[in-house]
Amino acid sequence: MAPPFDRNVLLAKGQERAGGLTDLGTGQFLEGMDRFVDSLNAEARLNDIGRFIAEERVLLHVVNRLRYVHDREQYPEIASVEVVTPVFIVGLPRTGTTILHDILNQDPANRAPLTWELMFPSPPPEASLGNNDPRVTACQATIPSGDERSTLFAAMHPMGATLSQECVVMMGEAMCTALFHNQFRVPSYQDWVDTGADWSAVYAFHRRQLQHLWWHKPGDRWMLKTGGHMWGLEQLLAEYPDARIVFTHRDPVKSMTSYASLTALVRSAGSDDVDPIEIAADWTARLKMVLERSMAVRAAREYPDAVFYDMYFSDFVADQFAEIEKIYDALDLPMSDEGAAAMREYIADHPKGKDGIHRYAPEEFGVDPDTVRREFAPYIERFGLEPEPEDT
Question: Environment class of residue 141 by beta-carbon count within 10 Å: exposed (0-12), middle (13-18) or buried (19+)?
Answer without folding.
Answer: exposed
